[in-house]
Amino acid sequence: IHRNLGMVERAVSTTDAQKLENEVQTQIDHVISNCERLDVLVMKEPPTRRANAKMRVDQLKYDCQHLQSSLRQLQHKRYVKEQEDYEREALMSRTFTTNDAAAATQASVMIDPALQHHSRLTESNRHMDDLLSHGGSILGNLRDQRATLKGAHRRLLDLTNTLGLSNTVMRLIENRTSQDKTIMVVLMVACCVLMYLVWRYFT
């Protein structure tokens, strides 16, 4: 899709641009359909992997929305360019007479709305650029938060593994203590029996 968007931006003829735009839109719709299927499949993942899978699907959705915005921006630029070319051709093909005040007034009346329309389109284009820039900054912040959450998740897993190891060691110590007590009691009893037998033998 990124490659086709670059081809749309470099397209010379309107027909080629429209064909590429339709192809990109079809690809984006296909990605959106796959994301909806992934939403269903995420719920079938094990609980330990579900959060990570859900995060990946959400990232794909956000990237798809960004691609859709880029396509709309390119379509808007193409429309503005076509409008400018049309108005330029109309101005170049129109004939003016310097001594006809009425014709000059009529031409001025026709040019002013076109200039206002162009100014409004330019302003809309600028607002769209600002919106895309703001969206890019939000995407960067989300990626930073994602990296932070991944680090915290990794540390929690390490802590969980450490606690599991500590519990295992404590159980081994408790078992060893019980075994030592048993051995001590047996040896004490054996020692007492041996002392009794020695005493009995010598007396």
TrEMBL record:
GO terms for molecular function: SNAP receptor activity; SNARE binding. InterPro entries: GOSR2/Membrin/Bos1. It is found in: Golgi apparatus, cis-Golgi network membrane. The keyword Transport applies. Pfam families: V-SNARE_C. It comes from the Eukaryota. One of its GO terms (biological process) is intra-Golgi vesicle-mediated transport. CDD domains: SNARE_GS27. The chain crosses the membrane at residues 183-202. Gene3D superfamilies: 1.20.5.110. The keyword Cell cycle does not apply. Involved in transport of proteins from the cis/medial-Golgi to the trans-Golgi network. Belongs to the GOSR2 family. This is Golgi SNAP receptor complex member 2. It comes from Elysia marginata.
